[in-house]
Write a structure and sequence with these properties.
By secondary structure, the chain is an all-beta fold. 0% of the residues lie in helices and 24% in strands.
Length: 70
C-alpha cells in the first residue's frame, strides 16, 4: 500500500475586503482588515492565506495579520 499526498491550490475569482475604506488620524489607532474570497463557482474559499502589504509604508503599515496602523 502506498500513500500519496495531494495539495490543491485554489485561485480566488473574487475578493472582498472590509472595511472598504478607513481613516486613521492619530498615532496608536489601528484597524483590523479582513478579506473573503470566492472561487469561480461563487463558493467561499476557506482557510485561505492572505498576504497584506502597503503601497506607502511612510503613511501606513499593515501587519501580516491585517492590522493597519498610521
Amino acid at each position: 500500500t502506498r500513500t500519496v499526498t495531494v495539495t490543491v491550490a485554489q485561485a480566488a475569482a473574487t475578493l472582498a475586503s472590509a472595511p472598504a475604506t478607513t481613516i486613521l488620524t492619530a498615532l496608536g489607532q489601528t484597524q483590523q482588515l479582513t478579506t473573503t474570497g470566492q472561487d469561480a463557482n461563487h463558493n467561499p474559499i476557506t482557510n485561505a492565506t492572505v498576504m497584506w502589504s502597503t503601497s506607502d509604508a511612510s503613511v501606513a503599515t499593515v501587519s501580516a495579520s491585517g492590522v493597519a496602523r498610521p
